[in-house]
Automatic annotation (TrEMBL):
Superkingdom of the source species: Bacteria
Localization per Swiss-Prot or TrEMBL: Cytoplasm
Entry's family note: Belongs to the FtsA/MreB family. Belongs to the heat shock protein 70 family.
One of the Pfam families matching this protein, by short name: MreB_Mbl
Protein name: Cell shape-determining protein MreB
Amino acid sequence: MGLFNWFTQEIAMDLGTANTLIIHNDQVAVNEPSIVALNRNNPKEVLAVGKRALMMHEKTHESIRTVRPLKDGVIADFNAAELMIRELIKLVYPKKPLFPPSWRMMICIPSSITEVEKRAVRDSAEQAGAKEVYLIHEPMAAALGIGIDVEEPVGNMIIDIGGGTTGITVIALAGIVCDQSIRIAGDEFTADIMEALRRYHSLLIGERTAEQIKIQIGAATKDLDNPPDDIPVNGRDLVTGIPKQIMVSYQEIAEALDKSIFKIEEAILKALEQTPPELASDIYRRGLYLTGGGALLRGLDKRLSQKIKLPVHIADDPLKSVVRGTGIALQNYDKYPFVMR
Ligand SMILES: Nc1ncnc2c1ncn2[C@@H]1O[C@H](COP(=O)(O)OP(=O)(O)OP(=O)(O)O)[C@@H](O)[C@H]1O
């Protein structure tokens, strides 16, 4: 082993709109929300990253700014992205090593990304200390993470419902055959919940509260087999301006999310229409694979399979399948033809 290899450490990163995960030595070493808190007076100074920054979100005073550097799966704030990546990599080694390693990084990117956006990911990683950067398209990473043999001559449809976007992709022979992406995903579900409580209960709530409601009782259908109990929700009364509490049921949330889920269903149907017939017949036999945090929405698999009339499988650990697949690609970076250098 050469001196260079000795100091080279490998990490695989799922740089997501909502969450960033890093695999190092086959372990998920970092799993943090994609958010950073910066000093407004010195934008190069990071005050907190990940969960700590999220706790500050929507509660800051004028000298702190919390930033989500990614929007719809791509870098929207280059400076914040670079600082966030740098701080998250530091979490891999909580104790500062004597000789800082040089990083070989595999990062997943949305398949619809432009060359300029791709450059921004590479530059951010290099600025954050990466010596070698490899890229992989998210649906390919998701498929590897789910355990699909992406190289066989069989079509598989992967639906990745993340924070900013839902990607619907057909994969065969180690390539992407068709690909659709819509900007309706977890963040839109959260916004739907905020809007419904404002409209029907005159209750103003923040993004974090809405996301918690979604996670605790969010549902894609009003007809769940194991319904969760109603939960109390605190916010500010729109009319009186005074804080108040109401009880919210999962049926109300299912109603609020209905339109967005309908749009996802429509996009899946459109993608199926565009799939070449031989691959469509594989998908008919195998069904669809659902991944990303949105796959955890109660009853979504049931609703989709009723609408599309195909089996729908939820990935084992939908929030981690992309990073696991990115890790697998990193181990085989010189072998897989779809890894981008
Ligand atoms: N139990 C749950 N029920 C419903 N939604 C959930 C649940 N857990 C997480 N989510 C949502 O999943 C989304 C995050 O998913 P994920 O980490 O796959 O996205 P991402 O990779 O960061 O986003 P993108 O792929 O758009 O870049 C968030 O909107 C989050 O609120």
